[in-house]
Amino acid sequence: MPILAENFFKERKYPFILTLLILLICVTLFLFSFNHTTSNAVAFYSVIQEKPPLNPSQASADYTANPKEQELPPNMTNVRFDWKLCEEPQNVDFIPCLDNFKAIKALKSRRHMEHRERHCPETSLHCLLPLPKGYKVPVPWPKSRDKIWYDNVPYSKLVEYKKDQHWVVKSGKYLVFPGGGTQFKDGVDHYIKFLEKTLPAIKWGKHIRVVLDVGCGVASFGGYLLDKNVITMSFAPKDEHEAQIQFALERGIPATLSVIGTQKLTFPDNGFDLIHCARCRVHWDADGGKPLYELNRILRPGGFFAWSATPVYRDDERDQKVWNAMVDITKAMCWKVVAKGRDSSGIGLVIYQKPTSSSCYEKREGNNPPLCENKDGKNSSWYARLDSCLTPLPVDGMGNLQSWPKPWPQRLTSKPPSLPTDSDAKDKFFKDSKHWSELVSDFYMNGLSIKWSSVRNVMDMNAGYAGFATALIDLPVWVMNVVPIDVPDTLSIIMDRGLIGMYHDWCESFNTYPRTYDLLHSSFLFKYLEQRCDIVDVAVEIDRILRPNGYLVVQDSMEILNKLISILRSLHWSVTLHQNQFLVGRKGLWRPKGS
Questions:
Q1: Residue of 194, 171, 191 lying closest to 183 (CA atoms)
Q2: Which of 323, 400, 314 lies closest to 357, judged by CA?
Q3: Which keywords, in A-to-Z order, does the entry hold (predicted)?
Q4: Nearest Cα to 422, choosing from 397, 405, 401, 404?
Q5: Which of 174, 369, 391, 522 has the fewest CB within 10 Å, making it most exposed?
Q6: In DSSP terms, which residues pair with 219 in a beta bridge?
Q7: Is the dihedral of CA 41, 46, 48, 52 positive or negative?
């Protein structure tokens, strides 16, 4: 005869079963509370969680086995994918938003580099790019700074085109980078020393930490600055200087594809400590000075613009015309010349400084160019047209001009000047830093089966405050911190910390060549991204960006992870799941057979 619940407790029968039942209820409540917390994280901010077990391999599941031999996890979407190899013109180095030849052909003008800007196709890439013939595992850092496999980036045009300037030399199976450049007659090391000698206030790696190199060539300037604790965002367009940015990324040097054309660069206001241009072929005086206004927008108050070009040191009519235009525009912008010099090879240099006070703006006659009005206070430059006005100097919540960050490396862990002044923001920032420091040291380093010695180029797809990048600072890696356009804007804070990053919409393709990153990281991105675009399209873009043997690390809800596991397995990736919230995928060399 069944025992009624009330009699069960009155008579106190089966004490062992009663204890076990209460324990199960408690465990169920705890798990429900934990899952509810982690699944409602703010888009860019991972909820601070309990530390994972120090031996997480015991709590991981491997989904690399043959599907016939292993049952899929519960609720996994068991969808079959019929992957095909891309055909021409989607070749091995195809970049969807920069190689949209149909859109480029339809442009009414190319006068302002419109053909080098983003023109994303209406439909996403639905095929997989082939590997270059003879592709090899990249040369490891730091050797890669000086040489890379030719077969990985099989382009020799720059070897011939710039042979007298020693940009790159072909040597057997390698492409070798001697550290030369158009303005680096005595080598890039000498040139970097010449810059600091011309203006000692630069103090590489202490006062100047975050640099933008415009028209960077093969990025040797940024590559050699790494030795001085300077992180440089090197950029150039995809133009006749064949594969220059691809060379840079294959070398393990931070770089991206971009152009100063009709749209703003995808960086925040007041972000860079120093901007550099060595014969970068930008017409700074074009359109009444709009390209210079854009530099003014992204340069930190008190920051420097170092310009090394023929108008600085040649007297012919053309160069003097450009120089006179620069004098007029920089004066109207309240920039002042703080140093000018010429090195032993005859190369000239001028260094401007952006003002640290608004008083000069107020004293100008005619208020031309005017100060921009940013009524909503937003700081996004995504698909925004170049301004014909000057961005006002940044102020804090009390109306005071923001200060220069602390010297490196203190700025990495101190309160960023652009962080909101309320106490909640400060607590959130330091809590985020603590969370990532503990998670990376206790779990990511030893618990995810990642061979960190093979990792150099890292991208955080949803960087937040760059806590993940900060936690990796002692490793020989660099991190591209991406702030998605539909989450709170933290990019100014990231750059205040002495790190680099950019804005992006992950429903579109990223401005980089295929096979350029060793590790992509995402924390609670896909859950929000799925509301706007197809997660399969995002996975195809990740497959395009990631190098063979590279890693994808995703922290998200189990619903999202299950979907990703299904997609990645169809791509023949190895996939492991940890703690029911961390997915680690590793890309292989598999490509579908061509038609």
A1: 191
A2: 400
A3: Glycoprotein, Membrane, Methyltransferase, Signal-anchor, Transferase, Transmembrane, Transmembrane helix
A4: 397
A5: 174
A6: none
A7: positive
Tens of pLDDT, residues 267-301 = 999 999 999 999 998 999 999 999 999 999 999 99
Q: Are strands 546-555 and 574-578 parallel, antiparallel or unpaired?
A: unpaired
- For 162-200, what is each residue's pLDDT tens digit? 777 888 999 999 999 998 887 888 999 999 999 999 999
Band (pLDDT 50/70/90 cuts) for residue 24 is: low
Chain centre to alpha carbon of residue 294: 20
Whether residue 85 lies inside any domain: the answer is: no
Q: Is the residue at 414 inside a domain?
A: yes
Report the DSSP pairing between strands 457-460 and 478-484: parallel
Q: Which among 485, 574, 588, 501 is positioned nearest to 546, based on CA atoms? A: 588
Q: Is 47 exposed, middle or buried (0-12, 13-18, 19+ CB in 10 A)?
A: middle
Mean pLDDT of the chain: 87
Sheet containing 60-62, strands listed edge to edge, beginning at the edge strand earlier in sequence: 60-62, 574-578, 582-586, 546-555, 517-523, 457-460, 478-484, 501-504
pLDDT digits (tens, 9 = 90+) for 535-547: 999 999 999 999 9
* In-domain check, residue 390: no
* CB contact set of 142 (below 8 Å; sequence gap of 6+): 252, 476
Take residue 249 and report the two structure tokens written for it: 């990324």
Q: Which domain holds residue 446?
A: 409-587
**In total, how many domains does the chain have?**
1
| pLDDT score of 46 more than 60 | no
371 CB burial (10 A radius; 0-12, 13-18, 19+)? middle
Question: pLDDT tens for residues 370-419?
Answer: 999 876 666 679 999 999 999 999 988 778 899 999 999 999 999 999 99
For 478-504, what is each residue's pLDDT tens digit?
999 999 999 999 999 999 999 999 999
Confidence at residue 21, expressed as pLDDT on a 0 to 100 scale: 59
pLDDT tens, residue by residue, 441-480:
999 999 999 999 999 999 999 999 999 999 999 999 999 9
The answer to whether 287 and 331 have CB atoms below 8 angstroms apart is: no
Domain contains 389: no
**Residues 6 or more apart from 589 whose CB is under 8 A from it?**
131, 135, 548, 549
502 Cβ contact list (under 8 Å, min separation 6): 233, 256, 266, 267, 480, 481, 482, 483, 491
Where do we find the tokens 């023109």? 119
Cα dist. 517→30, 248, 254, 504 in Å?
39, 12, 10, 16
Q: Which of 528, 538, 588, 546 is nearest to 564 (CA)?
A: 538
pTM of the model: 0.88
Four-point Cα dihedral 564, 566, 568, 571, nearest 10: -150
- Helices (H) and strands (E) counted in the chain, each on its own, are 19, 18
d(CA 520, CA 504): 14
Residues of the chain with pLDDT > 90, as a percent, come to 75
The three-class DSSP label of residue 42 is strand
Distance CA 481, CA 495 (A): 9
Separation of alpha carbons 315 and 309, rounded Å = 12
